[in-house]
Amino acid sequence: MKFYAKAFVLLLMSSLLVNCLKKPTNDKKAVSEVSEEWIQLFNGRDLDGWMVKINEYSLEENIHNTFRVEDGVMKVSYDDYEKFGKSYGHIFYKDPYSNYRLKLQYRFVGKQVADGQEWARKNSGVMIHSQSPESMLLDQEFPISLEVQLLGGLERGVERPTGNLCTPGTHVMMNNELITEHCINSSSKTYYGEEWIDLEILVKRDSIISHMINGKEVIRYSKPTFGGEFFSEVKEWKSKKGKPVTEGYIALQSESHPIEFRKIELLELVD
User: Fold this and answer.
1) Domain 34-268 class, CATH top level
2) pTM of the predicted model as reported, rounded to 2 decimal places
């Protein structure tokens, strides 16, 4: 009996020691770190998982090799264009999302294509909560979405912030006020050169959306709804007017000035 009693005591002590060495399961930071799994939306090799839609062209018609991958970078290039015209384009990631953090780096390079609009110089964007590429009309220039507008400085000393908000076919709330302007400037500084810039976007369905440039929040808004300038008059969309925008696709723009993207990754958030 003494042998079994000693064995039981040793077993109990070993169990208590192991439990003491375990990290507490209520450590929120530890649980958060373990559960974080960033999805690499861009593999750095090709456009796998992405769909191109350029105005006046069919889905997946990547005219003049506008969107291409070179040296691990997704490039928006106009080397093969004779003229740009109204070839505004977007490249969409294949899956829609609603609740997430999106990170990427971008930079403007080179010169704008010869006949590009003046407002489109060093101008591009990341569309979020966007309609699907399949639902876009053949001659639709911009998808119904929220645009994280990317701008580069044109003249030293003249401010031109980036990480702004534009609202093709949508409205938002800021400081409890309905915003119907098409574009709203952020508080970002101006970047004049060809340096890489960090962009992060926090999207919490329709409750909070925040843009961050180089780690600093530059604009925040909420409660996006369908409607306004560039809203489609197609019957399918008319029924959505005034309704909340809670999810959608992510797309990168081509607006006539060369731009490059890399390190595109997404973390889905848990409610």
Assistant:
1) mainly beta
2) 0.86
